[in-house]
Design goal:
This protein is mainly alpha-helical. The protein has one domain. The chain has five helices and two strands; from the N terminus they run αβααααβ. Strands 1-2 form a two-stranded antiparallel ribbon. About 10% of the residues are buried.
Length: about 140
């Protein structure tokens, strides 16, 4: 009887983790992608407004790109196969980014002194972006 309980508990825990990862992927990744796309649109609007504004002979533009240290995670988040709803591409997405997803999930689930700081860093879309301003002559 004890063997069945342990086996069942392991099986239930595995299913719970898989369900949690699926919910995480569909909700978290979709929201992150939406926020990054929104930031890109805001930068486009800002640059459009700055096109006609000069400071003496200078004008300025802002550029948004990804943080090189988080390139794999960034590419996963903005992937065309990152959809909120279930679709035919989920298996391909999960296979392509299996390592990145596992790494991120493990970081967010870690229980140590830096846990809260890591959660805040990896759940804030801005931490995946670099924002640069440059003078256009």
């Amino acid at each position: 009887m004890r063997f069945n309980q342990e086996f069942t508990l392991d099986f239930v825990m595995k299913l719970a983790r898989e369900d949690c990862e699926q919910i995480f992927r569909s909700d978290f990744f979709s929201k992150m992608k939406e926020n990054i796309e929104s930031a890109r649109n805001e930068f486009r609007s800002l640059n459009k407004a700055l096109d006609s504004i000069y400071y003496g002979d200078d004008s300025y533009r802002f550029k948004i790109s990804f943080d090189k240290k988080k390139e794999g995670l960034y590419r996963m988040i903005v992937s065309e196969n990152n959809y909120e709803s279930t679709n035919l591409w989920i298996s391909a997405f999960e296979e392509e980014y299996k390592e990145e997803m596992a790494d991120l999930f493990d970081k967010l689930m870690a229980k140590d002194d830096n846990g809260q700081k890591i959660v805040e860093e990896y759940t804030d879309y801005r931490s995946y972006l670099e924002r640069l301003g440059k003078r256009v002559c």
